[in-house]
Design a protein that fits this description.
This protein is α/β, with parallel strands linked by helices. The chain has eight helices and ten strands. It has one domain: Rossmann fold. The strands form two sheets. Strands 6-7-8-3-9-10 form a six-stranded mixed beta sheet, sandwiched between helices. Strand 9 and strand 10 form a beta hairpin.
Length: 272
Amino acid sequence: MAHAGTLDISNLSKQYRVKGQSLPVLDNISLSIRPGEFISIVGASGCGKSTLLRLVIGLENDYQGEILLDGKRIAGTSLERGIVFQEHRLFPWLTVEQNVSLGLLNAALPDAEKRRSVQEHIDLVGLKGFETAYPYQLSGGMSQRVAIARALVNRPEVLLLDEPFGALDALTRHHLQQELQCIWEQEGITAILVTHDVDEAVYLGDRVVVMEPRPGRIKRIVDVDLPRPRERGSYAFTDIKDDVLAEFADKPDAGLLPPVPARGVADWQFSW
């Protein structure tokens, strides 16, 4: 089992230079994440959710404030932090086994131990038997499983997830959410999920961080004090989901609203 990292974000602000002018993206973000905690971050497009993950993973160092992992300032990328993007980003000319092995490319481990870890994580994401398959032979959900295995294979302290299921159909997304919860519990690591899907955020998160945009600020943090696995149809689950959605009532965003019921024939008569 991996060591679960403690992440402390203090007074974090970030700006970009656009046409010679400063464009604030994040403003005074402070958040402490406990070891083994699962944090969900939701917010409308442009609130800086993905930028926050980029800073935590170490892809950018130009910011104000501090980001500490186990008390040490994050500087650059590291095997201590793994990330999964919305696109699986697999290399099409490599097999499942070879794609997962890339996560150990810079790891100082004997070859036998690398092979063992790769196989363990392929098994972990439910892809045993697909080791020699190529990405074109996999479904979208299976490809994302490979990406998750690749992010976990070096046993990072923190797993970052940037809308990992956003491009999948609803049934596959729900299934992989359940799988991700099992994987997170088994690995015992700290996880941070960025998503537009409030249902997903409540289903997976111990806490839901609600952000407001331009520049991105933490508006509210909602505790999800529900036993796992969670029942999406329960009153308690719906109550927390509605509570989070209410934070966006003044500024609705298509990605943060409940599904619109299917329209009847009469509704389509005037849709032109």
